[in-house]
Amino acid sequence: MSTATDAWTPPSWAKIAAPIAVGVLGLVAWSAFVASGSAPRMLPSPAAIAEEFVLRFGIIGEAMAVTGTNALIGLVVGSVLAIALAALAAAFRPVDGMVAPLLAALAVVPIVAITPILNTMFGASSQFGRQAVAGIAAFVPVFVNTLRGLRQTTPVQRDLFRATAATSGQTFRHLTLPAAVPYIVTGIRIAASLAVISALVAEYFGGPADGIGTAIATYTKSGRAALAWAFVFGGILIGLVFFLATTLLERLVARRVPSSSP
């Protein structure tokens, strides 16, 4: 009689081969749809997009660098501010009460509404408006996860540290912070994708004439569909880089944090 332990598990290579196979099938179906003549005019074949991406990689790479930099600055600044404010909110209840309305307001700020205002406020040649939008988008998930992580310790654990005459600083370093770090990193991983999306969307609404979003809008309006989609692919690559970097950070933290626990 078979048990749950006898259940068949796929080999490790299948975890890589399966997504690749799905992707290849998707590209084949896409190409067949375009070749049939039923596709919309602004939907080129994957081969045409790849050709434009290779031929125009110089300008696409420059646009990717601009968008990626704006997203990274917004992610870093937004995360640092969120962690600092969450630490204050966790330590002082009045601060938590004051920050709650601010957090609720930031969570519902429409990017498409605030971006033109920021771009106009800081000038058409400044990237600050786009970076600010990415920072606002990153702030909320990092703050929420950090605050939750800082409140994970139990009264029993805190009493144990007090019984050993640990100072508040030692309690924070060896108990509170190790418990909160996985939550902080998870918040950063979520915020990374939001920062990229927000930075890219912000480029549609004024500001300097560079970046992935601006290029997509420009080439779409001019009817150069394959080149516009090549810039879309560049935006996807930025998002993948941010996702892989934060996922790697999360795994590294998951390995190291247990050894820091009391």
Characterise the protein shown here:
With 262 residues, the protein is an all-alpha fold. The protein has a single domain, classed as MetI-like fold (Orthogonal Bundle). The chain is built from ten helices and no strands. It has helices at residues 14-35, 46-55, 57-91, 93-107, 111-122, 128-150, 155-163, 168-202, 212-221, 225-260. Helix 3 crosses helix 6 and helix 9 (212-221) packs antiparallel against helix 10. It is flat, with a radius of gyration of 23 Å.
Features:
single chain, 262 residues, mainly alpha, MetI-like fold, flat
Order of helices and strands: HHHHHHHHHH
**Number of DSSP-assigned strands:** 0
Principal-axis shape: flat
Given helix and strand content, the structural type is mainly alpha
At the fold tier of CATH, the topology name is MetI-like fold
Given the structure, what is the number of helices?
10
Radius of gyration: 23 Å
> How much is the average pLDDT?
84
The CATH architecture term is Orthogonal Bundle
The CATH superfamily is identified as: MetI-like
Strand content: under 5%
CATH top level assignment: Mainly Alpha
Uncertain stretches: none
CA distance, first residue to last residue: 44 Å
Count up the domains.
1
Question: What's the story with the biggest beta sheet?
Answer: none
Helical fraction equals: over 70%
